[in-house]
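Question (not urgent): is this output format expected?
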Amino acid sequence: MRVGFVSCSPTPYREFVPLARFLAERGHDPLFVAPHDIALDPDLRVARYRAVHYRNSALHDVAELLRLRATIDAIIAREAPDVLVLNRDRGADVLECARRAARRVGAPVVAMDVGITSAAFKARTRRSQRHDARRGVSRVVPLLWPGQQRVVDGDPLLFYPPGKTAALALFALLPQHPWINGENGAHAHMMISGRSLDEARADGARCDNAVVVGLPSIDTLYAAHRERDAIAAELIAAHFGGRRNGKRLCVFPLPQLFEHKLMNREHALDEIEAVLAAAERTNQLLIVGSLHPTMDRTHYQHLERAHPDFALATSPLSRVMAAADLSINAFPTTVSWSLLVGAPAVFLDWFEQGYRLDHQPGCVVSRDRSRLTEQLLSTLACADELRVAIRSDVALLPPFDGRCKERAMQVLLDASASRRALGDERGGAARRGASVLATVSR
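Got this back:
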């Protein structure tokens, strides 16, 4: 089975690469379709394309989109994947082009979630990018393409800006249901957890093609958790001179506030500094920060000098989190990782992202910056009770059994089999048609 993996950003490859290696070890043929500026290991087979660079000039931008469509068409036609894996079945130019190219060669598309999001978060990012459907020509878009608008808190918002919506429609690339992942022609939608499935349904998704598989990186977390004590000792030795001084290990995945364009870099750094200061005031924590692949390490290294009980990890989060006694989080994906390894999680719910984690046992929701130190101390004091609560409600967390990649492979095999079945059916129809023509001609 030849499996093509397509994304325009580095984040999904954190999940794609371990799955691809797992497939290769079992005799399958993975291929990456990636832009030139994303670094991938040299042993991986990669078909490169040049990313689109828009200039807000109609002629230039249309030419760029046509160039990208032709490039992706050529790659998919040449490589002939049996299945195409996209991190979303809508949302970025290359994904729209890949979806169309797959349709042209009859390859099923599988959408693979690589992180947890929410309708409110999608709405907020589009507000910040001025996708208001009440502005100028934007008002025409919902009349021509109704599925492109969603009303959130009374605000009509477009998924794409109006010019891009029109261009995608013109070149047969516009998805019908862009606000809902997995409902734009995907054969299957691989989801992270039972909770993400429930939330997608609450958001209006049918989910008739949804399969809960987890994440490939969670298999790494599962394996690392079995070495918890050794990893903790390694982190303490590497970053804190080998001395715990009676302090607990707190993992803090730094929020991508600047990278997601939620605020400017200075404001984002101020927010992170405030969290670190609150954690240090407990005098009970050694804090290991983890950077998302989209984050530039040089923007955050100064934090280590300013905060002696803080260090930026050099290992991936799937290894670091395994050793956590506690975690501080701004996004729900890492909350679930923390709970999976039995570490209580504090969720920072003051960035207006629209996530609701009050119902999650083992997760303490903080809505008041001024009370964060107090809440961290109370979380540490009742850590044992929180760990018991975590174990009572694992059903809606991502599967934590080391078999996420295995489940994902089975989804891809099923998709590939559906293609072969369709091909056999078409072939049979063609043979029957030829037989009828021959009979008529006689």
